[in-house]
Design brief:
7-stranded mixed β-sheet, 6-stranded parallel β-sheet, 13 helices, 13 strands
């Protein structure tokens, strides 16, 4: 089996230069780099990652703990993480915590024991054990999609990457209000998740911006799952004065809500208008086509990798939270018939003082 010394002799360079080319640890002149790569191909050299990790204390691997990998949203995040990792020469070890705090801590410990250089984790609704483990072992970690609130006035201990939630949800509510709806229901996610809390806040902001009262009976929890949303939607439909429009807070719950509406013999948007948080590949194939908030899921995954690698390069820098903008995708499930090609619009962070004038009746229809 060829060695790094064989590659160096074939390319006419030092072993150190070969190492810099293969590991990206120092700039190398383009023609020298190409000579090394040509020698690698010619000899069929494969780096010994185990030996390298013993020398550098780095395995060039990242642990990813994300629940519901079958969910299209997290699948796209996974694609973004994988692309970002490969771009920088890192491999990926994946585990599913199943949104269970005990299992979450166990799978993160297993990833840590496999000596990953750092972790990207979508935390559960109760991440206390997770945070305690990561902090105790000083594991470089980026929290993904769901934020963790840290007590006290001290500096934030972990980096976090997520999408905007409050403003985009408000946008859905005010759009429906602009179409004349006065009873707008929300099928919210699993209690305890930051995405659930922020989207409920966005729903309330949207009602305020539209001059509508908040009614606690119109907010139900679908627990971020299709079956839960089906039950929650049925509860809304059983109200003495049911909603005329719904906002669903993730793509899995959108499916459950549509199933419940079908079982009740209701048509979207003729009987009930619908807007969704989360766009997905087949949303444009539904009849009617789904008006939705699209999260930049692949970019969220890729950004999490970039933030983690920055943390590995500079362990002492202050932790930060990165939020990415979403896009309003205007189709027809909201009741609009002329969305046409005016579908994708960026949704900026929530600014209460400026919202009412943006969402006057008729603005989006």
């Amino acid at each position: 089996m060829p060695t790094m010394a064989d590659v160096a002799r074939s390319a006419g360079v030092s072993v150190a230069t070969v190492s810099h080319v293969l590991n990206g640890t120092r700039p190398v002149l383009p023609h020298t780099r190409q000579a090394v790569l040509d020698a690698v191909d010619e000899l069929g050299y494969t780096p010994n990652t185990l030996a390298r990790s013993l020398v550098t204390s780095r395995t060039r691997s990242i642990g990813l703990a994300v629940s519901a990998i079958s969910n299209p949203y997290f699948t796209e995040i996974l694609q973004g993480v994988e692309a970002g990792a490969l771009e920088h020469g890192y491999s990926l070890l994946i585990a599913d915590p199943h949104d269970d705090p005990d299992h979450e801590r166990k799978v993160v410990q297993l990833l840590h024991e496999r000596r990953v250089d750092g972790m990207i984790v979508a935390p559960s609704a109760d991440p206390r054990e997770l945070v305690s483990y990561l902090g105790r072992h000083q594991v470089p970690t980026v929290f993904l999609d769901r934020l963790v609130a840290f007590p006290g006035d001290g500096p934030q201990p972990f980096d976090q990457v997520c999408a905007e939630n409050t403003g985009p949800t408000a946008r859905l509510v005010t759009h429906l209000a602009g179409l004349g709806h006065r009873r707008i229901g929300l099928v919210a996610g699993l209690p305890g998740l930051s995405t659930t809390t922020e989207r409920i806040a966005g729903y309330r902001h949207g009602l305020t911006a539209a001059g509508l009262p908040y009614d606690d009976h119109l907010v139900v929890h679908g627990d971020s799952a299709s079956a839960g949303a089906e039950r929650a939607t049925a509860a809304l439909l059983s109200l003495a004065s049911p909603p005329t429009a719904l906002v669903t807070a993730n793509n899995a719950m959108t499916i459950g809500t549509l199933r419940a509406l079908r079982e009740h013999g209701l048509s979207v948007p003729d009987d009930l208008a619908l807007c969704c948080f989360d766009d997905f590949a087949w949303a444009d194939l539904f009849s009617p086509r789904l008006t939705a908030i699209a999260q930049p899921s692949r970019e969220i995954g890729a950004q999490a990798v970039r933030v983690l690698l920055e943390r590995l390069d500079a362990p002492d820098r202050p932790a930060r939270t990165v939020r990415l903008d979403c896009t309003f995708v205007h189709r027809t499930s909201c009741g609009c018939s002329d969305a046409g090609e005016r579908s994708a619009r960026s949704v900026q962070p929530w600014q209460p003082s400026s919202q009412p004038s943006q969402f006057e009746k008729g603005t989006d229809s």
